[in-house]
Amino acid sequence: MRLVIIGAGFAGMYAALSAARLRDIQGASPEQLEIALVAPEPTLVVRPRLYESKPETLTAPLQDVLKAIDVVYVQGSAGTIDTKSRAIELVTAEGAKQTLSYDRLVVATGSRLFRPNVPGIAEHAFSVDKLDDAIALERHLHDLADRPARNGRDTVVVAGGGFTGIETATEMPARLRAVLGKNAKTRVVIVDRNSTIAHDMGADSRPVIEDALRKLGVETRLGTGVASLDKSGVTLSSGEHIEAETVIWAAGMRAAPLTAQIPAERDNLGRLLVDRDLRVPGVAGVFATGDAAKAACDDVGNHALMSCQHATRMGAFAGNNAAAELLGVATRPYHQKAYATCLDLGEAGAIFTRGWDRKLELVGDEAKRTKQQINTVWIYPPRAERAAALASADPEHVGEV
């Protein structure tokens, strides 16, 4: 029997760990149940940190962890999925094709930044969506030092006032000073179509965020969007033009395109609708997890968000349940009633909230220490030691806050 997991992000990594854990508990051998993880590289990109400097350092190797738990790494990208014949066609780095059959499949392909049809976005906008994108932005920022201090050289416009946009914008003043000098007159502007900044963070957090933006000198343009981009900067739907040599797009996410190959219902973000065991209804043998799935967290209407926190726990349940079906044991319904948010605010600290109503618990330096702990310890893979790695993947405890 073979369980195949597509994706080496947080959801895919924990699906592999959890499936291997259940296989170990049930006393099955790797020959009896092969667990294979498919990804272009055996590497976890620490995506929640890509707004930081030195993004090339924000990865973690998975090969040793996978070997320790007897998970087979298959290098390649999933090109097509045939759910009737239960087979995946892979494309290797050299462009060759190979077919991999499965008895159970876990789709953990993550999400991508949504780039709307805005004139100039492809040519002139940077992002922190993928590792290559973040590295390109880092190089661009360092190149600014060699340019004349005019025409918006010292200005950054961030399109999007959600989590990613705020974390990126509040990090920018320090990143710009590191490149241009501590006395540089930098300017950072957040543009968002909502009438308030941090629209999803709630009334308790918003004043803290607004105060942090003022302290950092970050401007906002609310109730308006980016109408077009060119080499001189951005033109807003309000008609205002902002000269800027750096525009960062951070507005909206969609599930990775591979989910469209699964013949099942999807939401407006492209996520596959799944049941409480994270199965894709009507498609035998297929589970979806992380940003590729829309899943209920509880019985009162809350659904998993496109976040690392939800992806890790969803991954653990999906891997466990896919393996459980093959091993003939009971599955565990996914649930995630606890939810916390820790939002980085650059040199102004951070905020930590708990619950779906986002009750504010920590602010400033104390919240910043929690954010640093999350970013540098909690979200990294377990050490490559079999017992510890398997123990880390109990679905009932992964992602607890």
Automatic annotation (TrEMBL):
Residues 2-315 form the FAD/NAD(P)-binding domain. Keywords: FAD, Flavoprotein, NAD, Oxidoreductase. The keyword Flavoprotein applies. InterPro entries: FAD/NAD-bd_sf, FAD/NAD-binding_dom, NDH-2. Pfam families: Pyr_redox_2. Coiled coil: none annotated. Belongs to the NADH dehydrogenase family. PANTHER family: NADH DEHYDROGENASE, NADH DEHYDROGENASE-LIKE PROTEIN RV1812C. This is NADH dehydrogenase. It comes from Bradyrhizobium japonicum.
